[in-house]
Amino acid sequence: MKELIDSFLDYLSVERALAKNTILAYRADLNLYLDFIEKRGIIILSKVTKNDIVEFMLFQKTKGVSPTSISRRLAAIRMFHRFLARERVLKTDPTTLIDSPKLWKKVPDTLSLNEVEALISQPDVRDHQGARDKAILETLYATGMRVSELSNLKINNVNLDIGFLRCIGKGNKERIIPLGKKAIHSINRYLEFSRPHFLKQKASEFMFISRSGAKLSRQSIWKLIKRYAKEAKIKKLIKVHTLRHSFATHLLERGADLRSVQEMLGHSNISTTQIYTHIDKDRLKTIHKMFHPRP
Q1: Residue 170 falls in the annotated catalytic set
Q2: Candidate list 73, 81, 132, 244, residue with the active-site label
């Protein structure tokens, strides 16, 4: 059964061009699923029934797994069985009549403008690493890029003269995102002051690099965000996409249209972007109370 997972993941990588992180998540989800059904005495997938998959989902729930994660695991299982049915490894697909668990859309945690300013002002730009980190934070907030997208950003995909960058997102989809003046200024300083110092006569196609000249990893970028948030004394829970969520929220608060924000975030479905519109309800209530003739 493990070999069938490998074949399925190869299909996702080659035919569907899914991101590496997505494929790794699917592998982890499917391994959990196979371990569960093997413990139920099932050694071939043709013996799996709808009830077995439902029992797996209920087992995940009893372990405290969130509805979002359970839904993602079901999606992986559903795609896996559909693939096997299409390849005629299995005669039937037991997932066809299974509903996804109900999901409550959670409003993402965001920073206020003052908190964003406090975070971005923490790096010491007189230091090589500080200048790089300042450019990273400015770029994340200016573009709403995912941390993994920033890690893979190549230097030839950034045009500071016209103020745009080309981002390769999930599913190898490309999008163009504007850069603001502050981000451009910080990137220029990093390129002139820090990057040559890190490279030490070497070459790299990646924009943001470590002190050894290697591509800066997603984990390293995430660690520096958390460190500067702590130094800025931000009490909120900082997550990997906090700056991305703040970017979208602040744009919508200032009147940006939903379609434009969707395009900049790289969401394939506008319903994903619409979650940010819920954040603005308190501001709308305040405006209504201030200006409506019968508040």
Answers
A1: yes
A2: 244
